[in-house]
Hints:
The chain is α+β, with helices and mostly antiparallel strands. It has three domains: about 1-115, Immunoglobulin-like (Sandwich), CATH 2.60.40; about 135-170; about 170-300. The chain is about 50% helix and about 20% strand. The chain has helices at about 1-15, 115-120, 140-170, 170-195, 205-225, 235-245, 250-270, 280-300, and strands at about 20, 20-25, 35-45, 55, 65-75, 80-90, 95, 100, 105-110, 110-115. The strands form three sheets. It has a five-stranded antiparallel sheet, with no helix packed on it. Strands 1-9-8 form a three-stranded mixed sheet, with helices on one face. Strands 7-10 form a two-stranded antiparallel ribbon. The chain is elongated, with a radius of gyration of 47 Å.
Amino acid sequence: MRLRSFLCVCLLGIVCGTISGEEAVLVPREVFVGDRAQLTFTVSGLELPKGTLIELPVSEIVSSFDATLESVLVTSESGRTTVSVFFIPWKTGTLALPSFVVEKVTVVPPEVRISSIIEKTGRDSLEPPRPPLLVPGTTWLVYGYIAAVVLVLVVSGVVIVRFVAWVSADPRDRRSARYARYRTRILLRSLKSLEKQACTVPEAVWYGTLSHAFRVYLGCVYASNPSLFASATRGEIVEQLSGLGALVGAVPCVQDIDSFLLRIDLIRFSAPVFSGRVDERLEDCALVRALAERIEKELSA
C-alpha cells in the first residue's frame, strides 16, 4: 500500500510538476525528538482561489519513519499559497518531510533541523527517579491541617485565659458580674424593641414603656428586685436610691436619674409641649443606654 502511494506521488510529480516550499518558518524554533512542531512555508507556483482552505488527508500521504504527520493545511490569501504541516519528529539532524499533492501539483516541504537534547545538555543518561515532595493532591490538605492547628491553638489560648481569670476571681464577684450582664442584656433588648417601634407606637405609650424598662433596670441594679420601682413616683425613686448603701459615692448618677425621669414624666403628661419626634425618641434610647453604661462602670470600679 505504501509502495503504491509512493509510486502515485512520483508519477503525479512527473506528470504535473513538482514545487518546493519557500520562506519556511518552524514553530517552535528549536524542536527536539518527540516534540509537536509546525512548519509553515509558501508555495509560489501553486495558484488557488482567494480564501481557499484545504485539509489534506494524512492517510493519503506517503508515511515516513522519521516523522509522523498529524495534519496538513493549505490556505490561499492575498495571492499567496501557504502550507502548514503539523508533525512529530523521531530523528535528530536534517529531516525531510514527505511530499504531497495539492491540486495535481506535488509540494516538497523544505528540510528542517531537529535538535538533539543530548548535545544541548551534555547528558546521555536519565537521572535516577526522585520521590515526590508531596503526594499529589494533598497540598490543600496540608494547608487545611495547618490552619486547623492554628485555630485550635488560638481558641485554646482564649479559653485558658478566661478560665484562669474566672477561677482567680472572688465567687461573689463572679455572681455579680453574671447578674450585671443579665440585667444589661434585658435593658438593651427593651431599648432595641423601642427603637423599632419609634414610628408606630403613640407617644404616651412609647415613653411609658421606656420608663418601665428603665425602672426595672434600676431595681435590678440597686436592690436585685425588678419590681421595686415599678409603681413608685420620681421623688420616691430618688429618695430610695439616695438611702441605699450601694449608691455611696455615686451622687452624680442619682442626679442624672432624677433628670431623666423628670423628662419622661413631662413628655408623657405634657404632650402638647413636647413633639416626641422619632429622632427625639431615638436620642432618649441612646441616653438610657449611656446612663446604664455609666452606672455599671461606677459599680464595677
